[in-house]
Amino acid sequence: MMNRQRVRALIRKDWRELSRNKQATVPLLVLPLVFVIIIPTAIILLGNNPALLATVNGLQAFIDNLPVGITPDGYSTRQLIIYAVIVYFMAPFFLLIPVMVASIMASSSFVGEKERRTIEGLLYTPLTDRELVLGKVLVSVVPAVLLTWGSFLIYTLLVNVLGGPILGGMFFPTWTWAVIIIVLVPLVSFLATCLIVAVSGRSTSMQDAQGSAMLIVLPVIALVVGQATGLLLFDVSVALIVAAALLVVDVVVFVCVVGRFQRERIVTRL
């Protein structure tokens, strides 16, 4: 049976160490700043400005290929662009935020212990392999999810305050967005972090771990970007089905990572 107290102690220890690492914490604020404030503000204030549509990569093609009937009737061109971008186009970025944040933090999980010369003491603690891997995963997942949820609240307030008067009232969020933020964000973050923690245990330096982490996260990012916008075009039930499938994948990946975790191998590679 898993000892929750030991897992919580490991998480608190790592959070204290991460809080002292400015190189790891500062980049965590840049990504939400761009996606949550800068881009939506520019879209709402500038609307259908051709220069803006050309500047944001893929935005013009997204608007041109938007399916008929997914936006409210009677919207002007500017209103349609604002609604489509805020409700649909920005969705993948809110799944990218936890993945990127978790990748920055998780890449230093075991390799960070090696560089601080604390890995041997950690591996010889009473923590089981499952507790150790779960603790290292949650160290990154919890802040990544909380940061994304906080970003979502700011985004919701911002787009309704700035866009509400243009679109005729509060228009965000939708129920599908609620499922994506509350359910899919933790599941996607957990999946990416499990993979990165597994790589960190086999790396010899922080640079090596971060480089390997990006190679692992890139397919996850591609999947997120490719599917998230299309996912929003369906109803809540489809989003929940996707979430259920992702939950199964998360469990399988976690079990595999724990099964392949070898303390002796980590110690011999110090």
TrEMBL record:
Extent of the signal sequence: none
Transmembrane segments: 26-47, 80-111, 175-201, 213-234, 240-261
Record keywords, A-Z: Membrane, Transmembrane, Transmembrane helix
Domain of life: Bacteria
Membrane as UniProt keyword: yes
Keyword Membrane: yes
GO molecular function annotations of the record: ABC-type transporter activity
Recorded GO CC terms: membrane
Protein name, as recorded: ABC-2 family transporter
